[in-house]
Queue: 3 jobs
Job 1
Amino acid sequence: MFMRLALLVVVSILLGCQTSPKTLIRLSPDGPEGVGLKNAEIEGQREYIYYSAPTSERISSGIWEGDPYEEGPDTEGASEFMYIINGSATIVDEHGREEALHAGDAILVPRGVTYYWKQSKLRMFWVIFDEGEPEDWADRTAANSYIRFEPHGPEGKLNGEGGTRKHMYYAARGEKLSAGVWEADASMSDQFHEPDYTELMCILQGSVTIIDDAGNEELVQAGDVVLVPKGMRYQWKQGEYMRKYWVILDAD
């Protein structure tokens, strides 16, 4: 939403968000314990920014809550993924396509898409990424409209070989930046991963234990939203089937 995006840099400084952590970040729907959500400069909006990229404070992720309002038309210079926690909203693109959003729904508005927004009191997880010129369509894969995510993919199934399957709903910068839904069968490995990107994961089903290189273990399960920051070394211990939405941002 335009008003919120315009204030991200100011708000991230005021809220003291993490800019380059190397540990797993859990996004709580209520903000960090003892901190909560902070009032934004726009009346009726509250937010906590959990992550802001070292290279651009606009590339970020967090929790946002707003009282009822409507706005538009807006055309953004960055793409935004939204995962609704509670409340409802209606989004309409410039061609008249309209959809209602409720708790549990996920949607991505690519940069360059013009849309109108109307909401009740609403709270959501969000990721802002793929910053660029709104009219620059050549380096990403998306129709000229918003993208609604389905937990099993657009046709009710995901594609892939072996124990891993996915559907990529959005890609940019030669797929260095992407978003979609992913599922995998159980997978246990002692291999350490050290990604050159940051990834937000919204766990839809199943669980995994993530172990950092200091031996700290975090059980991540259905309903959790976590962020693995760029450069974090970790092991992935998945003892059962798991499915998640993903967003890859802040890639080298």
Note: The first helix runs from residue 2 to 6.
Job 2
Amino acid sequence: MPTPEADAASLPPSWADVLWIDAGSVNCYLCHDADGFTLIDAATPGKAGLIFDRLAEFGGRPTDLKRIFITHADLDHAGSVAAVQQRSGATVYASAATAALLAEGRSPKHMPRLAQFIVDRFVRYGAVDRAAIRPVADGDELPILGRSRVLAAPGHTPDQHALHCPAAGVVFAADALNTRDNRLQLSPPRMTADQAATERTAARLLGLAPRVVACGHGAPLVEDTAAIGALLAQLGGSEVGSSL
């Protein structure tokens, strides 16, 4: 006779298998699968303790963290990745461009000129051991919430990638979308490398008709087809539910 644990393992993944971590100015997410946990982004420097505390609340130990997916190499999304990786031993998955920046503790170029100069000259975070990084590309699949697809999501930064988890109905949108000011919107133009690419990326992600848009900033958008449809219409996109 099947055990309760076996029954639970056979259930399809859902938003209930995700823990949203509000790290202050930025979000990261823990995803639970049968083989352990995945961290989506790693917040600002100094947040490793918070991440491991939330992992414990979610029923995991540091060594249960198997994967870290970094959407892009900005300080506020990758700041604690080295510390989390070192303690957990998790494999870090990131695009090739992001991986190169992670290995040097550097952020991508997408800021106004003076701000970018300061970031390039003075801002660093802990570098990730190159041996711990596995590059991924658009269309690759990872065992996250069952099976998830990596999607190139340029615009905010050139290296940004999102993650689509169809069984759970979740898109981890990074900074392609946010819900600041309690509304679904694009990355702010002043912090965007390529506005046209940002609009194309947003239309691509929203066209997947996700039940949850897990943004890098602002509360996750849950079961709000009206907000998704409104932004798609603003972007001139096709109806919700279009395929890639």
Note: The CA atoms of residues 132 and 162 lie 20 Å apart.
Job 3
Amino acid sequence: MEVESPPITLLPPSSLSLSLPPRPDRRLANQLRPPMCELGPLNRADGSARFAQGQTSVLAAVYGPAAPRFSRKERVEGAAVEVTVHPHYGLATSSEKEKEGAVKALLEAAICLERFPRTVIHVICQVCEDNGGLMACLMNAASLAVINAGIDMKYVPLTISLALISPPSATMKALPSLPPSSSTTAPTSSSTYLLLDPINEEERQSIATITIGISSVDQNVLSCQSMGIMMPSQLFEAIDVAKGAAKALMAFIRMTIEEHSRHISKEK
């Protein structure tokens, strides 16, 4: 059962953000693209989920906990996590290997591995569409698939993507941004702006992109992958924005799980 939401706005936009031209997809700078989630789309997997934000979509499947095919993969202290990422098209490259490592580290920290000794949990992620914020979609889809598999977790990892943008110029007239804070300056000493949940076009024009994982329990930062140049004050501002977005995303995920549970109950 698919659950969709309209674009999620974190805070009432300021007069400055209202005066800026719209982003390429007509969102404000502090809006997430409409999220979509479907739990259990695959019948033969132990758990599965499809997660999408706008035109970026990922299908994830979980197999296990199950006995490993090779004894060398056994861990007495807990389950071993394996992650495979398949690109939208073509063969996997070093970029997919990097994504696999990031998703694996996030899941290993969130899953109660000690409850499943000598087993393997295999997570497979298929990229269906990619229009920016792919790493966040991968991590969110994998987390939801683990939840659907009924595997115990300490918390739900919520991942948010952001882009750091310089002031609109002649080549970026249609690209708006959040008002700069008084403490935020770009590496070039000019003011910069944060865009929430950027699309591909915005990522290409950005100074830096950052993907932040937040815990649903205590709002602690779980992971952080960045590309580009960013000042410490800009990083702290991005973390604050990501925490607000994670709360909104968690409300949507909670609603999705409740709708899925009601749907299962009706079928029985």
Note: The domain at 2-267 is CATH 3.30.230.70 (Ribosomal Protein S5; domain 2).
